[in-house]
Amino acid sequence: MNMFLATLLSPLIGGILLGLIDHPRLAARINVATGVSTFVFSLLLAVQVLDVKSVDAMGGWFHLDAYNVFLVALTTFVGMTTTIFSGPYMRHELEGGRVDRLRLRLYHSMFQLFQFGMLLGFTSNNIGVLWVSLELATLATVLLVSLYRTPASIAAAWKYFILCGMGIALALFGTVLVYFTSSTVLGHGNEALTWTLLYAHAAELDPAVMSIAFCFLMVGYGTKVGLAPMHAWLPDAHGEGPTPVSAVLSGLLLNLALYALVRCKMLVDGATGTDMAGHIMMGFGLLSLAVAALSLHKQRDIKRMFSFSSIEHMGLMTFAFGIGTTLSSFAALLHMTVHSLVKSGIFFTVGHAAQAMGTQKMSEIRGLIRHHPGIGWGLLIGTAAIAGFPPFGVFTSEFLLFTAALESYPWTTLPLLLGLLVAMAGLFRFVQPMVYGEPAEHAVPVHVNMLPVYVHFALALALGLAIPDFLADWYEQAAALIVSVTPAGGGA
Amino acid sequence: MSAALIQQLVDGLAALMLLTSFALLAQHRMLSVLNWFAAQGVLLAVTAAVVAYGTDNNELYISAVMTFLLKGLLLPWLLWRVIRELHVHREVEPLMNTTLTMLVALGVTLFAFHIIQPIEKISQLMTRDSMAIATACVLLGMLMMITRRKAITQVVGFLAVENSLFFAAIGSTNGMPLVVEIGIAFDVLIAALIFGLFFFQIRDTFDSLEVDAMNAHLIHGDDEE
Amino acid sequence: MSSAFVQMLQAVLLLLLAPLATGFVATCKARLQNRRGADVMQPWRNLRKLFGKEVVMAAHASWIFRTAPYVVFTATVMAASVVPALLVDTPLSLTADVIALVALLALARFFLALAGMDIGTAFGGMGASREMTFAALAEPAMLMSIFVLSLGAHSTNLTTMINHTLNSPFALHPSLAFAMVAMLMIAVAENGRIPIDNPGTHLELTMIHEAMILEYSGRHLALMEWAAMVKLMLFATLIADLFMPWGMTTDASLVGVAVAFALWIAKLAGLLLALAVIETSLAKLRLFEVPEYLSGAFVIAFLGLLSYYMLEVGA
């Protein structure tokens, strides 16, 4: 599994290297090079894994199957485009004096370490290590959120740190509870936390303990996913951190937390044989959708507004995974992909818009399409895409989700539809004047790199028009893996 | 030592653990908070050593030593340094008065006991009884995090939660695998360092370690105007 | 010896030794503070002196003021006489219920507070109000700590509880440790000792017990003070009974009683010495901190209860 090692190690090595390089331009290039190489390696890895369906690496410490290798590829792709985007963006911040060279170094280094934590989390076969790497990724982003050292950014980072620390502690407690019952089945040692073994023996785990464990895991990882009512940290962290960080928080970190939650749900379903876990997830999903859709309308800061949109979409995915049919899981995976692509694209655009206007206040961002047509169109297209307009991928995945919900829980379609409409209204209410309104005088020219944005949107569009066969196969494999409650179908 | 005696010892240590959790909540002065926190760390290390002896698990001895150094000495010392360097006001200033906090804490403990009861029945381990106490301690640590005004007491609450989780791991499952244990310890250490870094930044930026002062700066709050 | 005789004997001993116990604490404290101090007999001499003096009463003192010392003394002595000190199974053992004991002490406290208010002086009323405020917190804590003990014995009867402790094999009981700490804290508070109240002061701001008996003189005062001494003795014996009953005799043989007596004196001496050390090393709490101290005792007792259920049931 050389590709695997290369995928995992390139961000680690890149991160360490970037910690030593003081030259901003060189560091930005190395950052991009690391992002590209990680993506290329992960793509090669994905091709390998898809051939053999599932594989253990490094003596069983890591496990790759359709579900996570797909997420690895997505993560490295968004990571790569973010590195491309962050080059000019961070240069502008450096010139504007919002960061100094030392902090830029910290930014580059932490960004790659964050990527490393993400990849470690996705590929780890040990739910304990999964927790550790999620915590690692969190710690790296805490430093990134507070990068500007403004009062607001420090306060936001602190809130993020404390709330997620609390949440993740609960998740650890849930993990301890899982170990508590699994160690009676699999013996004391790493085996009892190895996901593939746990999955194979899920039916032997004690249902009572697993139910309680799931409650802790749900609240714990749910905090990281940004589900209401544990979402308080998310808008602040997104709003106050540098834009590339907002992009990867929304596009990637939330995915990892949801991934962890779904892995745990698979175990709990196997142990209890009921829909308990799914129902809890559906409840949290719907609640998040409702809370986020309503909160959207009250926002004044553009990044905070789009972070509420992230909460909304994470709620949708959680809901979809909660339904637990093949179709809904397929929809959730597709939604995860398009949301990551579109949302990070939007944040790139928003970052440029904020730089051009010198503010993140929506009331002061006006007439983008006149003086920065690229940014204006980007924001418009992105908003249309994230709001679920056809022909973008979000529409497809939401449509699939509705179909799945209609099959299993018809009554849920009403709140779902209502939530989506309210959210859409909120988005357009704010975006329309920002794009079209009277141009503001305080606009400054910025060096804009819209290429990553358009690549993201184009991919989301492509996914909406036609999902390539290999990708559809991939989703189907992953969905089947998530759904199969009978442990015999496990990856081991 | 007989198995029964070790079981009793672990139970006794669990009871002390619960006591330290309550004591942390009840303290008025920062220094005594730190003292109790250090005591909790040492208590954890002793528990790990006792369980290691009782189960002949050599990995746990490593955990015990690690815990003693990290949670009994290093972290309290770091926090003590922070308090001294930053001239933190010595009073704790809780959001609720102590008596009310204590009553809530008792309720929380009862709740923990209630939810854990079904679990304890099925376990065969000699240390199963401590699960309920560990759960209670986790919740008590969280209570501490939400009822304190100062950033530094919130951190102590966070670390107390971490301690209780560790206690849950050794007390009720005879210890997680060493790799995970080391990973967790590493994360806690990094977290503590970041916390320390933050204290100085918060202090420089806000001239106080009050959480309220910070939240006031999140000007774009949902509920504004 | 018949058990009835032993019962009588221990009641009388409690009564007679009580002033000595108070004197012992005072002497120990004096020594710890590098003073010579009075010898242990001093409280006895004080009592004798007070009994010899005439009673001076306020003009508008009612019958409550006059009868209160007798009620307080009688209730306290009744409570003391049912507590087994030497022999576990006494003829009065059926009445040796801890809840009844607490009730008797509450009766004494009630009359004490009434008497404090009867004269209508500011001090008396203040002392009474403080006393009742703290009692409202102390009594639940005391009952809670006793319940922890009675859970194991399935009874609140002292004799049954002592028998249970004597007959069960040695084991570490975290719940008992909690209960004992709570009980010690309560005992200190109930007897008006530092850090709650200072028996040696008449400083107006801090008085509790002394404020209530400020108007008493002569034999009334003697009875009140004696009752307080008996109460201290009672609590010491109760703690010895509940937490370290080893050495108490189950039959009324001479040897058994003698051994029990010697051990009882030793336990008392130990407890009282500890009290002296605590009083010397601690400063008095400010008044508004006392509720916190008492609720702390309650919390600790409650922790004992919880840890009993969490750790010891079925273990």
Could you describe the 3D structure shown?
Helix content of chain A is 78%, strand content 2%. By secondary structure, chain A is mainly alpha-helical. Chain A has one domain (2-489). The model of chain A is unreliable at 486-492 (pLDDT under 50). Chain B has 225 residues and is mainly alpha-helical. Chain B has one domain (3-215). In chain B, 80% of the residues lie in helices and 0% in strands. In chain B, 54% of the residues are buried. Chain C starts with a helix and ends with a helix. Chain C has helices spanning 3-32, 42-52, 63-82, 98-118, 122-153, 158-167, 174-190, 209-212, 218-243, 254-281, 290-312. The longest helix of chain C is centred in the middle third of the chain and has 32 residues, at 122-153. Chain C has one domain. Chain C has 315 residues and is mostly helical. Chains in contact: A-B, B-C. At the B-C interface, helix 1, helix 4 and helix 5 of B face helix 7 and helix 11 of C.
Topology:
The complex is a heterotrimer of chains A (492), B (225) and C (315).
Chain A: H1 2-20, H2 24-52, E1 54-57, E2 62-65, H3 66-95, H4 101-123, H5 127-145, H6 151-186, H7 195-200, H8 207-225, H9 233-240, H10 243-272, H11 276-296, H12 302-323, H13 326-357, H14 368-371, H15 373-386, H16 393-408, H17 413-436, H18 451-465, H19 469-483
Antiparallel strand pairs in A: 1-2
Helix pairs in contact in A: 1-2, 1-4, 2-3, 2-4, 3-4, 3-10, 3-13, 3-18, 3-19, 4-5, 4-10, 5-6, 5-10, 6-8, 6-9, 8-10, 8-11, 9-10, 9-12, 10-12, 10-13, 11-12, 11-17, 12-13, 12-17, 13-15, 13-16, 13-18, 13-19, 15-17, 15-18, 16-18
Chain B: H1 3-26, H2 30-55, H3 58-86, H4 98-122, H5 130-147, H6 151-173, H7 178-206, H8 211-215
Helix pairs in contact in B: 1-2, 1-5, 1-6, 2-3, 2-6, 3-7, 4-5, 5-6, 6-7
Chain C: H1 3-32, H2 42-52, H3 63-82, H4 98-118, H5 122-153, H6 158-167, H7 174-190, H8 209-212, H9 218-243, H10 254-281, H11 290-312
Helix pairs in contact in C: 1-3, 1-9, 1-10, 2-9, 3-4, 3-9, 4-5, 5-6, 5-7, 5-11, 7-9, 7-11, 9-10
Keyword list:
heterotrimer, A: 492 residues, mainly alpha, two-stranded antiparallel ribbon, disordered C terminus, B: 225 residues, globular
